Fold DUF4321 domain-containing protein.
Amino acid sequence: MKKFSYGRFFIFVILGLIIGTPLGVFIGKVFPVFDYGLNFGFPTMSLDFVFIKLTFGVSIKINVGSIIGVILFVLFFTLT
């Protein structure tokens, strides 16, 4: 029995999101159900000092394609 690796599992989940989201948007042009999803995150916040300007913000889009991508990559993780 193989030892479960949280780091490897996390990489597979991130890869599923990275590959599944654009595929969901692309396939969503033909089948709109694949592009349905949620957008959430923090709005941008700017700190303007005299010598440097810092901007922070996070936005995440999860659609049906990204969920399918994560499921496929987790299944692939369990098989390897």
About this structure: The first strand starts at residue 37 and ends at 48. The chain has a mean pLDDT of 88. The two ends are 12 Å apart (CA to CA). Residues 6-28 form the longest helix (23 residues).
